Amino acid sequence: MLDHNFYITTPRLAITYPDPKSEAHIAFSLELYKDYTTTDANGNVKHTIPDRAAAIAMMETRAAQIETTGYGRYYVSVLPPTSSPEEDEAERVQKSTLVGMVSLNLRNADAPPLPDIGFNLLPSTRGKGYATEAVEGLTKWYEKEKGVTELLGYCDDDNLASIKVLRRAGFELLGDRVIASLMNAGNVSQEHQGKLLVWTRGLKKDPKEYGL
């Protein structure tokens, strides 16, 4: 069972587990993923998180993923201003405002055997550096607590916002690659059902040894 009192803080943000029992997290999940769709084998387009039950199920699945693999999705919130030097940090986290998610995922056997970073913010909160700060905060925590230093990132070649975030967070462009497990589950747009840009950080071996 995940401890939902867990949090990571950065100068402006709090990073926490998604909580399927939290009404705020349920409502936020519906808002964050409202435009996400998948296409089934028959070509039917469906919303990934269409309702409250789906939002709860998604967070329960993500919690189980973190418990079993040590990797998964986290929610990102903006901390309120500090009212005094003695203010309790946990109270500030509880008062924070949800703005997005950041993730570190270890994919299945069809993907390279390294965790990859992901992030998504509400449109109204983009352009403020939150994504870069969240990526740096989560990856620093994984390095300190779990010794994870070799990382990947994927994005479409025209996703300029993600490209900027990855570069600012210290990732280097490797090139474009076909990552089969990311090509068929709503992870990339229909017009990009071919290759993804692959980014690396901290690799200790030749990328070819990771299947890249």
From TrEMBL:
It holds the Pfam family Acetyltransf_3. It comes from the Eukaryota. It comes from Pseudopithomyces chartarum. Residues 31-172 form the N-acetyltransferase domain. This is N-acetyltransferase domain-containing protein. PANTHER family: GNAT FAMILY, PUTATIVE (AFU_ORTHOLOGUE AFUA_3G00765)-RELATED-RELATED, N-ACETYLTRANSFERASE DOMAIN-CONTAINING PROTEIN. GO terms for molecular function: acyltransferase activity, transferring groups other than amino-acyl groups.
